[in-house]
Each structure stands twice: as structure tokens, then as C-alpha cells.
């Protein structure tokens, strides 16, 4: 949720001016999330990071109104650190403080002050939250990438929000920990590498931060690694042209990497620069074109002619892996549906009775095939961290078709 919030805020910061009448809704979504994160960080030296037991929740298929699974509350604190989740929470609060700087200065100051405090806690009491809370968060939400990137990511957003030398020096002191190589084109809730490089590179391209030039070099390397047809490309594409990375919920990579392509293209454009990939020059227009191709694919321009956003277009997923969508509403079925009684709806071949309009699912496999079946959760499950980067992309391309 913290990563979702950071990307929602970044979307508003970079693309809010193109969102038109949807901008207040975007800002409201950011505030809904930061109100929660403020509550979760209200006690100094403590961050509440999870409500509910993942094993009991995954064992049941029931409506939110009927839920009777454990509502255990999990936290990180000084003896049980979680620099990854605290670092991302600090990033979310700092990014959101920029969103509200002119809209609600008092709220903005509250967010920034809290981000400073949460980051200091994350940095001083170091460790991965899945080491402290392994039984509660693994294997579902394990940190497999370490926490150093979240600390750098939090510092980068705090630097952007506060302009304090403290964070600039922190970034410079810790940049060696951000290895390029295999992680150069990774960006998501567990891996911030490409996002850090693109975010910080804006400073270099604006001509006011030559001391960050290694991040610009890494950002350029990220661009070259995702461009199809370039010899150095490290990202796979489906026959229909969709970015594909191994693992679950591929659309999280599609939306996150496309967001970075678009953001970086804008930074390059304002600086009148391009990216050199060997003998090829990648212009800002080329990066925008690649990002737009991915968004068009999501919305239905693909071999199946299927939109992967529920409720959009003539054809979209009907059997998404989502309890409230797949079970009958309380109005249609007033009686309680127990933990295992929902299984028949989970396994049913029938379409979901309730449309989760706007939700983007994990998407097709590397051959562009899509099963549209609840048990195939990697393809059919929607997540907030798929949708959040897409908001900025849709805002931009709605204004620049």
C-alpha cells in the first residue's frame, strides 16, 4: 500500500496537470492512503504494517461482510526492525507532501515531518521486515530484494520534498549500494532500483546536480535494457508486444516500467536530451511511443482484443480473482456465506456477479494467452500496485493521444 501511495503521488506530481476533472479524485485517493499511513506511524519508533493473518485469509473465500478470519495486527519496532516497509512508508509520506504543498500546507507539513521521523527510524534500526515478521508475511509478501533500496528511495523522496542537504549527502554516501547489473530494469513494491535512478536523474537533467550523474548513467542503462531491437535489451516481449518479466502478476512490471519510460521521456524532453544505446539514439518521443504501446495493449490493442481493465471496452476479464467481485452481494444473498462455502463460487465457470470497474489484472502470459479463470491468480488477480502507475500514464495519454 505504501508503494501504491508513492506511485499515486508521483502520478499527480508529474501528470496531474493532464488529468482534467479526474485530478480531484486522484488527490483524494492519495489522501485516503496517507490518512491511513499517518495512523500506522502515529507512535514514534513503531510502524503498523499488516492487519490480518495471510494464511487464514488465503484459506477462505468469503465476502468482506462475512469475514471471520484473524484480524491480527503486526508491527515493526526497534527490536523488530523493518527498514524496507518503513523506508517505503517514508517515501509515500514525502511524495504526498509535495502533492499537498499548495493544496493543504498544514497537511503537507504533517506528512513531511512524519516522513522525516519514519525514515530516521528505518535507517537507525535496520533489518528486513520479513526477517522480523517471517511467519506473518512470508511467503506472500516476503522482501527478497533487501532493504537498502527502500532506504535510498525514501531518502530520494525526502530530498525532493525538503531539499535538505542531509538527504543529498545520504544518497551520495549510499549510492554504491545501488548496484545496476541484473536489477537495472526492476521496479515494483519489492525493488526500487530503476525508480530511484529515474527520480534522481531529473536533478541531473535540470543541470543542478552533477554529483548525481551515476544515477543518470544507470537510468540511461535502464532505458537501453527495455528498448526492443537494441542488442543490450534484457526485457522479454510477448509476440503481441507486451513487456514480460518472469514471476507473478506481470502487469505490475508493465505499468511500473511504462510509467518510468514516460516520466524519463519528459525529463529528457525538457532538457533537450536523448539516450544513447550503442549506436542508436533513443529520443523522448521513442520512449513515449513504447509506453503508449503498453497502455494500448492493456486497454485492448492486443492479439485477443481484450482489455485487461475490468469494465473497459467490449471484452474484458469476467472471472477475476477477487472475493467481493466473485461472490453474490449481500442484497442478492442476505444469508452469510462461510469460509469454505464460498469455494463453489471460486471454482464456478460463471462470470463474476459484481464488476470491479477499473481494476487491472495480472494479465496474459508470455504467449499473449489469458485463461480468465479465478484459480489462475497470477493472471486474474487485480492489485493496487498494478493500477497506481497506470493512473499517471492514462492522465498523460488522455491529453496527448
UniProtKB/TrEMBL annotation:
<protein>
    <recommendedName>
        <fullName>Endoglucanase</fullName>
        <ecNumber>3.2.1.4</ecNumber>
    </recommendedName>
</protein>
<feature type="active site">
    <location>
        <position position="372"/>
    </location>
</feature>
<comment type="similarity">
    <text>Belongs to the glycosyl hydrolase 9 (cellulase E) family.</text>
</comment>
<dbReference type="InterPro" id="IPR001701">
    <property type="entry name" value="Glyco_hydro_9"/>
</dbReference>
<feature type="domain" description="Glycoside hydrolase family 9">
    <location>
        <begin position="1"/>
        <end position="394"/>
    </location>
</feature>
<keyword id="KW-0119">Carbohydrate metabolism</keyword>
<dbReference type="GO" id="GO:0008810">
    <property type="term" value="F:cellulase activity"/>
</dbReference>
<keyword id="KW-0326">Glycosidase</keyword>
<keyword id="KW-0378">Hydrolase</keyword>
<feature type="active site">
    <location>
        <position position="381"/>
    </location>
</feature>
<feature type="active site">
    <location>
        <position position="321"/>
    </location>
</feature>
<dbReference type="InterPro" id="IPR018221">
    <property type="entry name" value="Glyco_hydro_9_His_AS"/>
</dbReference>
<dbReference type="GO" id="GO:0030245">
    <property type="term" value="P:cellulose catabolic process"/>
</dbReference>
<keyword id="KW-0624">Polysaccharide degradation</keyword>
<dbReference type="Pfam" id="PF00759">
    <property type="entry name" value="Glyco_hydro_9"/>
</dbReference>
<dbReference type="InterPro" id="IPR033126">
    <property type="entry name" value="Glyco_hydro_9_Asp/Glu_AS"/>
</dbReference>
<keyword id="KW-0136">Cellulose degradation</keyword>
<dbReference type="InterPro" id="IPR012341">
    <property type="entry name" value="6hp_glycosidase-like_sf"/>
</dbReference>
<dbReference type="InterPro" id="IPR008928">
    <property type="entry name" value="6-hairpin_glycosidase_sf"/>
</dbReference>
Amino acid at each position: 500500500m505504501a508503494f501504491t501511495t508513492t506511485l499515486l503521488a508521483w502520478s499527480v506530481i508529474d501528470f496531474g496537470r493532464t488529468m482534467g476533472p479526474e485530478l480531484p479524485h486522484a488527490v483524494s485517493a492519495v489522501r485516503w492512503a496517507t490518512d491511513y499511513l499517518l495512523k500506522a506511524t502515529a507512535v514514534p519508533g513503531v510502524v503498523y504494517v499488516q492487519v490480518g493473518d495471510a494464511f487464514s485469509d488465503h484459506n477462505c473465500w468469503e465476502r468482506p461482510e462475512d469475514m471471520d478470519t484473524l484480524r491480527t495486527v503486526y508491527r515493526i519496532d526497534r527490536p523488530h526492525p523493518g527498514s524496507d516497509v518503513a523506508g517505503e512508508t517514508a517515501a509515500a509520506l514525502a511524495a504526498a507532501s509535495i502533492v499537498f504543498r499548495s493544496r493543504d500546507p498544514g497537511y503537507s507539513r504533517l506528512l513531511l515531518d512524519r516522513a522525516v521521523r519514519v525514515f530516521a527510524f528505518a535507517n537507525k534500526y535496520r533489518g528486513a521486515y520479513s526477517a522480523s515478521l517471517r511467519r506473518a508475511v512470508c511467503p506472500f509478501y516476503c522482501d527478497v530484494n533487501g532493504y537498502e533500496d527502500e532506504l535510498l528511495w525514501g531518502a530520494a523522496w525526502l530530498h525532493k520534498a525538503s531539499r535538505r542537504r542531509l538527504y543529498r549527502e545520504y544518497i551520495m554516501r549510499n549510492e554504491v549500494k545501488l548496484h545496476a547489473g541484473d536489477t537495472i530494469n526492476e521496479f515494483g513494491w519489492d525493488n526500487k532500483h530503476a525508480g530511484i535512478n529515474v527520480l534522481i536523474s531529473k536533478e541531473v537533467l535540470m543541470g543542478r546536480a552533477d554529483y548525481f550523474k551515476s544515477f543518470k548513467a544507470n537510468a540511461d542503462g535502464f532505458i537501453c535494457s527495455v528498448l526492443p531491437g537494441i542488442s543490450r535489451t534484457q526485457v522479454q516481449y510477448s509476440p503481441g508486444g507486451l513487456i514480460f518479466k518472469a514471476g507473478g502478476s506481470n502487469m505490475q512490471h508493465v505499468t511500473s516500467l511504462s510509467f518510468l519510460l514516460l516520466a524519463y521521456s519528459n525529463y529528457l524532453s525538457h532538457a533537450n536530451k536523448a539516450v544513447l544505446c550503442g549506436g542508436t539514439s533513443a529520443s523522448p518521443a521513442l520512449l513515449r511511443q513504447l509506453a503508449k504501446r503498453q497502455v494500448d495493449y492493456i486497454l485492448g490493442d492486443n492479439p485477443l482484443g481484450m482489455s485487461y481493465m475490468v469494465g473497459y471496452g467490449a471484452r474484458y476479464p469476467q472471472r477475476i480473482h477477487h472475493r467481493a467481485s466473485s461472490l453474490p452481494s449481500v442484497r442478492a444473498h442476505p444469508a452469510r456465506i462461510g469460509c469454505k462455502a464460498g469455494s463453489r463460487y471460486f471454482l464456478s465457470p460463471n462470470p463474476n456477479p459484481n464488476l470491479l470497474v477499473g481494476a487491472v489484472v495480472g494479465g496474459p502470459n508470455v504467449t499473449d494467452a489469458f485463461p480468465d479463470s479465478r484459480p489462475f491468480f497470477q493472471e486474474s488477480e487485480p492489485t493496487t500496485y498494478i493500477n497506481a502507475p497506470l493512473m499517471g500514464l492514462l492522465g498523460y495519454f488522455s491529453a496527448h493521444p
